[in-house]
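>> received
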Amino acid sequence: MSESYLHFLWQFQYFNKANLQTTDNELVEIIKIGRLNTDSGADFQDARIIIGDVEWAGAVEVHLKSSDWDIHKHQNDASYQNVILHLVWENDKPILRKDGTKIPTLTLRERADKSRLQKYQSMMESKAEMPCQNQFQDVDDIKKLSMLDKVLMKRLEDKSVIVNHFLEENNQDWEETAYQVLAKNFGFKLNAEPFLNLAKNLPLKILQKHRDNLSQIEALFFGVAGFLSNENNDLETWDEYRLNLRKEFQFLTSKYQLQDKILGQHEWKYLRLRPANFPTVRLAQFARFIHENANLFSVLIHLENVKSFAKILKVKQSDYWIEHYVFHRKSEGKVPTLGDSSAENVVINTVVPLLVSYANQKDNREYLEKAIRLLEELPAEQNNITKHWQSMGLQIKTAFDSQGSIEWFNHFCLSKKCLSCNVGVEILRK
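>> returned
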């Protein structure tokens, strides 16, 4: 048994209401159940209930045991003094308000439908990745689609919160924020943190002063990233390109006081990465992108479609990095530029969160609609989560669907929040 299940029973009134009485044998008539409260205070606000001969207006608090009221110290909390009904599974103790008056208590243990409870317990005890997977196909598609919309919007809001955090750190500077979010994305999963640290240690304002000089931007990137530090005392093995970057960076380090901003080479990961995703290659590509797009935020926020962004993002790194995956070692073939999948990844994880955050900040729904439209343009991501949903019959055609399905699984299925899920509720309602 859980409090969330009691919430479910009260919210949908799934219990026997014949001769409904409190533990003190006062008749109960429910006029209005109230609204579920997700903030501090009692669980259901603005309820209206007739107890005995008196109609009460106030809150309903839900607990497994009535003694939980004291355990949670509600008796000393002013926000709980308007509770008119204490809804519990088991009544093990009379509960008093702060003024000494008794709170009417209603127990549901003997009034709840046992078959529905068994179905709920079965879902909670399920070892399957999705607790409802055996009943999923029995639910109407409209319920599934409404849940997909719900979780997609939650995912967008969660991502925009991260952008908002960067924005606060950057004193509402959208250009710097866009640069940091994009940098983190360029590191993809394995090198996201060092890329973000690099962007924080090397502000966009510095790079913009050298936007007409790609070699200086490369010197700044590779220098702050730690690739121009002579950690192994092996300068004699360095090629001319790397030595020139080092010389340029030594001057720029002094100019911008970057001595304490340099990362260690050990922070960058190569294990299990394809050479095209090596951090050195990504840094070279990022340098070229910054070189060619001075007004970074404007470029991202005014993106009209995925194809136009993919064209902008597919920059050709400098000649050295067309022939090298790492310093000093020539590649056997040409190093590829960013591919379509990388461009799509950047749209999903950089452009869309920026648009949603900007829409919220400016209270302009057009940017939110653009973010959704971009997701609908993109093909669905293919991973273990989306494949599992598809095996259960969920239609996943676009990135809108795949992003929603990932959120659905991670934040509802894994933690078995079935009672907060449209599909889970529908299964239990039947």
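>> The chain is about 50% helix and 10% strand.
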